[in-house]
Amino acid sequence: MKMEMRGVTKRFPGVIANRDVDLVVEEGEILALIGENGAGKSTLMNVLYGLYDADEGEVLLDDQPRTFNGPGDAIAAGIGMVHQHFMLVPVFTVAENIVLGVEPTRGAGRLAVRRAEESVRELSDRHNLPVDPHAVIEDLPVGLQQRVEILKALYRDAELLIMDEPTAVLTPQETEELFTAMRALKDQGTSIIFITHKLGEALEVADRISVLRGGEIAGHTTPAETDQDQLAAMMVGREVDLVVDREPATPGEVVLAIRGLEVVNDRGQLAVKGVDLDLRAGEIVAIAGVQGNGQSEFVEALNGVAEVTGGSIELDGRELVGLHPKEILRAGVGQVQEDRYAEAMVAEFSVAENLVLNTWDAEPYARRGVLQSRTIDELARKEVEEFDIRTPSIHTDMGNLSGGNQQKVVVAREFARDLRVLVAAGPTRGIDVGSIEYIHERIVAFRDAGHAVLVVSTELDEVMALGDRVAVMHGGTLSGPYDAPVDRDAIGLLMAGIDPDRPVTASGSAEQPPQT
Amino acid sequence: MSTSDDPPPEAVDEAVDERERRDEDPGWLARFRTEIVDGQTLLLTFLALVTALAIGAVLIILSEEATRETLTYFFARPGDFFAAAWETVGGAYGALFRGALGGPRAWSETLVSATPLILTGLAFALPFRALIINIGGEGQFLGGALLGGLVGFGVTGLPMVIHLPLTLLAGFLGGAIVGWVAGILKARTGAHEVITTIMLNNIMILLTDYLLLTALFQRPDRPDPISKAVAGSATLPLLFGAGFRVHWGFVLAVLVAIATWWMLERSTLGFEIKAVGHNPRAARFAGMNPDRIYWLVLAIAGGLAALGGIVQLSGVQGRITPGFAAGLGFDGITVALLGRSSPLGVIAAALLFGGLRAGGLAMQADTQISLDLVTVLQALIVIFIAAPALIRSLWHVKTRKESGLEATASGGWSA
Amino acid sequence: MSADLDARPAESTRDDGLDPTSPLVTRRRAFGIFLVALAAVTLLFLLGEGGEATFVLRDITGGDPYFQMPDLVVSVGTVVLVVAILAAFAGGIQLARGFGRRTYLVLGLVLALFVFAFLTWATAGSSLNLLAILRLTIRQAVPLVFGALAGVLCERSGVMNIAIEAQFLTAAFTGALVGSVSSNAWVGLLAGAAGGAFIGWLLAVMAIKYRTDQIIVGVVLIVFATGLTSFLASQLLTPNPDLNTPAIVSPIGIPVLSRIPVLGPLFFNHTIFVYGAFAAVLLVHWALFKTKWGLRVRSVGEHPRAADTVGINVYRIRYQAVVLGGAVAGLGGAFFTLDSAAQFSEEMTAGLGFIALAAMIVGRWRPFGALGAALIFGFAGSLSGGLAIVQVPIPSEFLLMAPYLVTIVVVAGLVGRPRPPAADGVPYVKE
User: Fold this and answer.
1) Residue C331 pLDDT
2) Structural domain contains residue C203
3) Does residue C269 sit in the same domain as residue C334?
4) Which residue is closest to C411 within chain B, CA to CA?
5) Contact residues, chain B, for A301 at CB < 8 Å
6) How many helices (H) and strands (E) does chain A have?
7) Does A383 lie at the interface with B, CB-CB under 8 angstroms?
8) Do strands A284-288 and A452-456 pair parallel, antiparallel, or not at all (unpaired)?
9) Are B7 and A360 a contacting pair at CB < 8 A?
10) In a domain? residue C222
11) Which helix (H) or strand (E) holds B147?
12) Do A40 and B8 touch (CB under 8 A)?
């Protein structure tokens, strides 16, 4: 099915999410739609899927203008969506999820369970996407859940598949499997819109590439005509240099010593399986890895909020395991949490209150249990100035700030304290390029001042840009750290749990044995 | 949806930059104005009251024999109906108004009714700031009356300066224990406080029924369930002498409300409570202790409701009978909601509902219209407050922002 | 779907190679110790006066059974000893190797035996009409079953319903009023369902349309219904007693079956409400788990956005489930005025709506679970009355507390934490 968008504009109060977007997907074609977080990709696709009404413009399917009043219409028209956050009911079986909304019945509204299971099995055979119709979704690994999402769309005879960041949660191997499936679907005549911000993937699998920037189309191209650098420039609107300017590290003594660390996640499974790591003053160790490989639990353990079942974490010789999060904070461990909104801030609190969120009961911000609002406001004014936090007032609710400014508040809060080590998990997740550069600079400056920094990120670019030494976390174990500069492809293989069979440290310098 | 759905950050930055940068603390008076007597809020509250009274008027008209009769020949002589309706409704609401505000005695009765409501209102409002929903006011109220009463009539021979504070303290403790049970269950096992507090309410009601027939509590000369009388040295003195029932408990309640306000807005504990309420996970990362907050806040809240119980016992009733709580714990929930969970708002709301109750009693005496109308009015007011969109569409008013209870997202049983 | 213990493979709980500090082993031990302690407590019953206990199983409701059951006469000492030994034996096995998946079954059986031993001890030297107590259990369970089913319907669709008490009261009132005016119990029953559905509709509008916090709406609706029914009762019913004398339903004996001894009076000689309650359990189970509508209701309660993205109208499904739930609770409310009491009085439901809520939670949001919990709670209620007759020195208040205590124990996760629908209580905002 051919899909064409003409002049689509979508406004939200105060913001234009999409402006005059033209987009074409031909039948049996994979179109990669790339753009930064916040470029308007999801909004645009939600317009196509009938979740939003466009304010202007039209959508044509096979050259016929169409309007959708909800996903039901879009589905009926042959559009299927594979959502970034899977739209699957965790406690339902695969078959129940696939037929939901178009259930086969046998009189009196009775569910024809067996018929549903048979047709699901037949469908998965036909498309070579094997999955057990009886399995309950929550027991399946992520890759299989995604397969169910795809089958769900195909069950509804989708001729156009929208895939919203489908590789974000996959290992490189699972990604390859997905690409194979996508190519097979394409050969059967299905059109695919592949949304991503990973340029390499777009170049690998797409027939054509459209770039979205700030809600507008920045250009259309094909993999043959372009390369990563050019795409990156189109995406951010200027040539970006992701390499942070910095001097080589001059590491000092070991500040943080982690030995045999084992951490259990909230489902009681062992998520971190014996990690050893030494972090020295004046260096940045960056840990790469696909989401869900134990990094979250590792960071939580360093923050004191996860259940540590074995091993030790020593800060300047002092054991941190078993301490309350507050004691760890006050010992000088700085924290930038992975999920800013859920872990690092209180949206309903003011900027000033968020700046003392983890020092609220300490001198000089509190005396004998009483908040010292004057001192807190002084701090807030200083930090807003120093970190260029764009806010109408220090008393504005944090939730009203943009992501980048919220992250600056979080980072400012940590740098305002007396730190020995900074643990920064995804320090630039979901924020604008300008803020990313600024935060990277601050982290490097902090290192140059002789502090130890641990960066944990799922963005390989960030790891490459910041790490003096780079380690990889996979399946709860750590490979490395390896001295920078490291071979990007080798790191990619390690992230997939594959031994690269070659030195990880690149450009001639000898491989360092893992530090113990 | 996903984070990638955020509007372009630059656009927001610019919008924010255009506004004036104001760094000064607006000051407590301005905060009071915006938080509690904000014009919009006041307008909504007023319209909610008017709407509730209008619905109440319809109920009166339909339920009164005299007006109902005129309805049967409405089309022949509509004038009769309007005259009768005006007379009935006007008479009822007139009596209600006089009973609440007409003269010093009415004022005194209003304050008497408001006193326990302030305290049970705080018992819901305070934990609500930590996103804990305390439905247990009723049981905690009884806990206060029971333990406080035990000291109030069980201990004798103490001077008032010792006996009265001791009684109040015992009362506080009685409810604090009941609240703490729910809190520690939530902290240790994750049991949802709504379920545990509801169950504890019923347990406490049954416990009261049982204890009232034991030698410890029962009045020796009576076969029916009624407790001994609180000793004079444990009785809250009257504020303005024998002519008026209003007692020092009212002053105590107001002081407790102010203290609660101070604790929430100025103390590190209040900061922690609010942080846990808005985002418990972030609070944990910031070195706070949500589990401790859960049991601490519920214990304090239980104590507050219990103060309501012991104050009612020591200041008004003098003895415990079955049904002693009389829904005052539940009424506290409506008071807190009307007062938007702010301690100072709770005082105002308790005065309004206390006035309705005092007036309702006068209305019942003068016009034989049942006091239960007041309960209906109370529920209606809170329904309209909870869904401001309803009021807005009814009255075609526009308000600047949502100020109701939309999406407070207490988040279900499993939270 | 059910608790963590069930979800794990049975082998793991039996595996002695398990880490002795693991929560599963700790729980296994705790249950074992509990069983042994229960055996010890049972032995305390020997301290009583002993002798024989007589349990009456004759039908005293006036039926005409094929033959009368003789009284069951047992020796207190023997029963207590046998039960104690069985409990200790079960405890020993549990401590040694555990019952695995059958733990709860064994626990339930031993508890039932313990209750029997307790009854024997309490009845020692006297006689207790066991059949009457069991029959009353079923009748007391009726409103609880309807109320809990109402909760199941609402909450499976993602709307919390703590306003069951409000639905009971309103339905009891409308049932009495319409049942009196029409002089027809069936019309009254319909009016009761309509009254409950009205409160359900209010809950739905507030929760779904205005997205108000559902716990708060529930509480406020209870206040509203209490006030409104009390107001109308004193304004309308008290001055006009003929408006408060509804036609009531009468027992319908099922031919043949009702004349079976014990089982006949117990199950087959009841009013339509009792049969209706059992039928409603079957119907709600069928509707939720075997039909297209039920699949959609559950999807909306677990993951509304997923349902929305496949074109299911989340709001419509929730409205349907909540209003239907209100009507079901309304049937339970009508029971008060059209069956048990024959007239409306203020606040007559006396907190039974909260016990129904408890039955829903203890029954883990499942119709048959709700039925089981309602029967247990009903038993506690009827037993408190029965024991008063044999003059047991246990205050009835403590037996009446049982439902509340059991519920607290269950939500505290001491015997398998229940898992509510994932989106229960969370308002859905359409994009």
Assistant:
1) 96
2) yes
3) yes
4) B191
5) none
6) 16, 22
7) no
8) parallel
9) no
10) yes
11) helix B137-154
12) yes
For chain A, domain boundaries: 3-236, 242-332+419-516, 347-417
C152-199 pLDDT, tens digit each: 999 999 999 999 999 999 999 999 999 999 999 999 999 999 999 999
- Quick one: C408 and C325 in the same domain? yes
Nearest to A103 among C295, C302, C422 (CB): C295
Tell whether C425 is covered by a domain: no
CA torsion B121→B127→B133→B137, rounded to 10°? -40
pTM metric for this prediction: 0.85
User: Does the pLDDT of residue C24 top 90, yes or no?
Assistant: no
Using a CB–CB cutoff of 8 Å, tell me whether A41 touches chain B.
yes
> Does A214 contact B at CB distance below 8 Å?
yes
Chains touching C (3+ CB pairs < 8 Å)? A, B
Contact yes or no for B49/B97 (Cβ under 8 A): no
Distance CA A340, CA B282 (A): 9
Show which subunits contact A, needing at least 3 CB pairs below 8 angstroms: B, C
> For A274-320, what is each residue's pLDDT tens digit?
999 999 999 999 998 877 788 889 999 999 988 899 899 999 989 99
DSSP state of A515: P
Q: Are residues C187 and C103 in the same domain?
A: no
**Can you tell me the distance from the alpha carbon of B259 to that of B172, in angstroms, rounded to the nearest whole number?**
15
- This complex has an ipTM of 0.85
A334 lies within 8 A of chain B by CB: no
Question: A152 to chain C: which residues are within 8 Å by CB?
Answer: 310
Q: Are residues C104 and C234 in the same domain?
A: no
Pair (C300, C335) in one structural domain: yes
Residues of B whose CB is below 8 A from A164: 2
- C420 inside domain: no
A–C CB contacts, 8 A cutoff, strictly below: 76
**Rounded Cα gap, residues A403 and C151, in angstroms:** 41
A3-236: CATH topology is Rossmann fold (3.40.50)
> Is C118 found in the same domain as C180?
no
Higher per-residue pLDDT: A6 or B398: A6
- CA B238 to chain CA mean position, Å: 23
CB contacts of B9 in chain A (<8 Å) are 38, 402-405, 431-432, 435
Strand order in the sheet with A421-425: A333-336, A421-425, A452-456, A284-288, A469-474, A477-483
* C405 contact residues in B (CB cutoff 8 A): 199, 203
Domain boundary among C125, C154, C188: C125
Q: Is A86 on the interface with B (CB under 8 A)?
A: no
Query: C200 or A393: whose pLDDT is higher?
Result: C200
Out of A443-452, B218-227, C69-78, pick the least confident: C69-78
Q: What does CATH list as the number for A242-332+419-516?
A: 3.40.50.300
Q: Number of structural domains, chain C?
A: 2
Please judge whether B189 and C413 are an interchain contact, meaning their C-beta atoms are less than 8 angstroms apart: yes
Domain boundaries, given as residue ranges, for chain B: 40-101+369-415, 114-355
Q: What is the per-residue pLDDT across B231-252, written as a single tens digit (0 to 9) for each?
A: 989 999 998 888 899 999 999 9
From CA C378, how far away is CA C277, in angstroms rounded? Answer: 13
Tokens of A4: 């064409």
User: What residue spans of C157-209 are helical by DSSP H?
Assistant: 164-182, 185-204
Q: Which tens digit of pLDDT belongs to each residue from B259-293?
A: 999 999 999 999 999 999 999 999 999 999 999 99
